[in-house]
Amino acid sequence: MSRKQQLLKRHRRNKRIALLIALLLLIAVGVFIVWWLPLVLAVIGWIVHEAWFADHLFYSPQDDYEYSFPPFTQQPRVHLDGERLRLDEGVMLDGDVTLVLALRIKSTWLGRFFDPAVDVSGGGDPDRQTFERGVNGLRYLNLSGQTAALSAGELRLHGRFCRLLGEPVLWAFEQPDYRRQRVMVIAPHADDAELAAYGLYSQADEAWIVTLTAGEIEADHYQQMGINRVEAARLKGRLRAWDSIAVPRWAGVPEAHCVQLGYFCLQLATMQAAPTRAVGSREAELEDIRVFRQMNPFALPGDLDGAPTWNNLLADLRALLLRARPEVIVLPHPTLDPHPDHICARQAVIEALNGLEWQPSTVLGYANHLHDNDRWPMGDTGHGIALPPVFDSSIAMHPYCLSIPPALQRDKAMALGMMHDLQPLMPFKRRLRRTIQRLLAGRARPRYGENEFFRKAVRRQELFWILKQGEKSSQHS
């Protein structure tokens, strides 16, 4: 069982215990006071839960984040003078750096009902970064893109429903421009590349998008069209396979650089456990991956027999790596992103690279899901991305932040809107919860679409983690 599943199981157990206690109290009120009062209290309690207690937050908002950054990372001295963040006299910053500021954030009493945030202003590009309600601990602001305002002594930090405490600590991470290198984005499912890296791959001199699975399961939306479960899964898989090939064209990626491998959703771990065993789809009643890879621009080793095996996946990846010779590979982060297909996707790429004649100079990790906070990045569409919760300081984390201007954010939103999996309406309960939170907790509706990923992914930055960094590859390209 993954850590996220363990946390979710504990959360649900605790919620069941709380509901049982509440039920007993309501019964007591009905018996000893008045019969109708429990009904009123139950409705009020449910509304309160949906407004303020429905987030999947599997840690205390009073816990300190525990980051460890690579040794010898620059730490320019800064001071918080009221709301103004000042560099020490004589300290200079290069414009192309990832800036991370650690400081303590303590919510006010209103910050238990409305999302606490830090407003960043003073330059020409104001920002807001949001944290957990009731926050009271060490947090990490992402000040990338604010170098000019900070160097000019004009940068201001203002707490909204929170106070900023203690002496801040700043890290400055120098970064090359990976957009000027050959980039390959590994997407476990259609839309993962767009969610994590649309801004990066759309600006790259040369980009490849490799999608591992058809994403055919959980096709209830298509069953509403009057087709059975198997037909719905096959239709959904075909649509998402099309998305994985077609949507990157919106960003200018050539069709010849978009590949769908057609393996089956949530089956990668089973394939990995028995590398020669063919593992069919859970819902589409298929055992041939060629059904979902008919739009590929060239043949791959797995096309010979169409068997959904781990060995075929590795052979496909090796062929693609040798054909594309990417200098930068972008894939799911090994510890931040807990989705089982994302974990296996990364492991498959690493195994495929083992002993291969071509090696990338850089590997970047991304996280489209988190173990312990389903709302991260917190805040609204277009806002900045504060660093996610991390509680293991034994792992060195090296952030790389790419600024996404407003016009590119809109293009990214349109790319996500083309993805069929993000188009269906949310269940009624979630829509009702969002309405309650908008009215009572001040949370805005995503600007570009109903799906939560329009809020989480369309931001002023894309945040990656450098997993491997070295000199530019010396192999002939």
Number of strands: 15
Helix-and-strand structural type: alpha/beta
The fold-level CATH name of the largest domain is Rossmann fold
Question: H/E element string?
Answer: HHEEEEEEHEEEHEHHEHHEHEEHHHE
> Which sheet architecture does the biggest sheet show?
7 strands, mixed
- Give the percentage of residues in beta strands: 15-25%
Overall mean pLDDT score? 92
* Main sheet: strand order: 11-10-9-12-13-15-14
The portion of residues assigned to helices is 25-40%
**Overall shape:** globular
Give the CA-CA distance, first to last residue.
42 Å
- Domains, number: 3
Low-confidence stretches: 472-477
The CATH class of the largest domain is Alpha Beta
* H/I helix tally: 12
As a whole number of angstroms, the C-alpha radius of gyration is 24 Å
CATH architecture of the largest domain: 3-Layer(aba) Sandwich
Transmembrane segments: 20-48
Keywords: Membrane, Transmembrane, Transmembrane helix
InterPro entries: GlcNAc_PI_deacetylase-related, LmbE-like_dom_sf
Pfam families: PIG-L (PF02585)
What is this structure, in a nutshell?
The chain is α/β, with parallel strands linked by helices and 477 residues long. A 7-stranded mixed beta sheet has the order 11-10-9-12-13-15-14, with helices on both faces.
Could you explain how this protein is built, in words?
With 477 residues, the chain is α/β, with parallel strands linked by helices. It has 3 domains: 3-53; 78-173; 182-369 and 405-458, 3-Layer(aba) Sandwich (Rossmann fold), CATH 3.40.50. The protein is built from 12 helices and 15 strands. The strands form 4 sheets. It has a 7-stranded mixed β-sheet, with helices on both faces. A 3-stranded antiparallel β-sheet has the order 6-3-8, with no helix packed on it. The chain has a 3-stranded antiparallel β-sheet with strand order 5-4-7, with no helix packed on it. Helix 4 links the parallel strand 9 and strand 10. It is globular.
